[in-house]
Design a protein that fits this description.
By secondary structure, this protein is mostly helical. It has 8 helices and no strands. It is 79% helix and 0% strand.
């Protein structure tokens, strides 16, 4: 178990999550100002927390066997709904975002509780309720508007990132090599998506200026 490698289903999961990240660009394009940046920060902060949660999950409970893999697919479906709802998460798609986020959260907690490591189970029994409350706040935000919606999104963000300090959660057995490989691969996928975006952006006649722009975009991704 110490040499657990990133599985293909984890890579598939990361592809869905990277789509979630790319959806954030549409939020900023639609509102390229301070409000747009604040929305992106709140959405990304809440979504990244659960992605990190799944990285910890597969580190502690490798998705081996039919049931864990099927549940991972359900979690992916939840992330896909979240991604599709992101462009209008602060508008008409807030409820869909909240429902998708609840699915992601419930699958995450359920898979962790299947762990054979008692310390990990105890840790999730402390942290899981906080994740569920946060998901509930995001769902409730979908039924509100104005300042109340902003308050609920902010409360969810703060609760997520302060919950480890409140719960003093611990007991996870860490396989460092798996973490390094997992995050290295998602960075590679994200950079690959940026190259795809450059290609999609170069539409119409292929002029020297557009070719140069595309090559510079590739160079930037390579530099990163």
């Amino acid at each position: 178990m110490d040499d657990v490698r990133v599985s293909t289903i984890e890579l598939f999961f990361d592809l869905v999550f990277v789509f979630t990240i790319t959806q954030l660009t549409s939020v900023l394009v639609a509102e390229p100002n301070g409000v747009g940046v604040a929305r992106v920060a709140l959405i990304f902060g809440n979504v990244w927390w659960m992605y990190g949660g799944y990285a910890w999950l597969t580190n502690a409970v490798p998705p081996v066997g039919t049931v864990p893999r099927l549940l991972m697919l359900v979690g992916m479906a939840g992330f896909l709904v979240v991604a599709l709802a992101i462009p209008r998460a602060f508008d008409g798609s807030g409820v869909a975002f909240g429902i998708g986020y609840l699915v992601v959260t419930f699958v995450h907690t359920g898979l962790f509780l299947r762990s054979s490591e008692e310390s990990a189970v105890r840790a999730m029994l402390r942290l899981g309720p906080y994740n569920t409350i946060t998901a509930g706040l995001l769902l409730a935000a979908g039924y509100t508007a104005g300042a109340t919606r902003w308050a609920l999104w902010t409360a969810a963000f703060v609760l997520h990132w302060t919950s480890p300090a409140v719960t003093a959660v611990g007991g996870f057995r860490i396989r460092a090599a798996h973490f390094v490989e997992r995050h290295g691969l998602i960075l590679l996928i994200a950079l690959g998506e940026s190259v795809v975006a450059v290609g999609i952006g170069v539409q119409g006649e292929l002029t020297p200026g557009r070719v140069l722009t595309a090559v510079l975009g590739l160079a930037l991704a390579a530099a990163l």
